[in-house]
Amino acid sequence: MLPIARFLRGGRSQTQIGTRLMNVPNALSLFRIGLIPCYVALFYFPARWAHMAAAVVFGIAAFTDWLDGYLARRLHQSSKLGAFLDPVADKLLVTVVLILLLQRNPQIWLALPIAVVIGREITISALREWMAELGARQRVAVSFVGKLKTTCQMVAIILLTIETAGEDWPIYELGVLALYVATIATLWSGYRYMAAAWPELRQH
């Protein structure tokens, strides 16, 4: 009976592991990734309402970014998988959308901040992974400036996606302004992360 008992205990353990992995925050991160093709389809859909619908989809995705973090803390459902999925979903979504926005309006004044934002995301992601291997990931934890950057970035993308839905309001221009504010916050938060990691970088 002992092998059977071990098997049954192992089965329950695997079920528990699966439940922990596919919790609500992780499901929201996967849902956010699933919204990317929805945004792309709406972005290119030949209808006047399509850009507004794409902006709504992005807004929902941005909301789930906040919601999965909140629920992970509230429900005590933080996991290593969640720590991987959440930033991957965010960076995939933002990168794809920024590239689409640049493709629609390929101007240097739009290309420069987008290049800065995407370059920073790649650099800081690599830095966090390297710091995690050293057991010092907490030194490059998300700061207030990083949260400000994310907020301005989300607002900018929504406004740039809408573009000309309201002719009486300079929606696109406000989106560009928000993007530049996000870029400044991006550079500042990137500097702070690099400064926090510098002692470890010097030693290795």
Given the C-alpha coordinates, what overall shape results?
Answer: globular
CATH classification, class level:
Mainly Alpha
Instruction: Using the coordinates shown, work out and report the CATH topology.
Output: Four Helix Bundle (Hemerythrin (Met), subunit A)
- Terminal-residue CA separation: 53 Å
* Sheet of most strands: none
Q: Quick one: how many beta strands?
A: 0
Helix amount = over 70%
Backbone CA Rg = 20 Å
Question: Which runs of at least 5 residues are low in confidence (pLDDT < 50)?
Answer: 1-19
| CATH level 4 superfamily | CDP-alcohol phosphotransferase transmembrane (TM) domain
Textual characterization of the structure:
- There is one protein chain.
- Helix content is 83%, strand content 0%.
- By secondary structure, the chain is mainly α.
- It has helices at 2-21, 24-44, 50-74, 80-104, 108-133, 144-162, 171-203.
- Helix 3 (50-74) packs antiparallel against helix 6 and helix 4 (80-104) packs across helix 6.
- The termini are far apart.
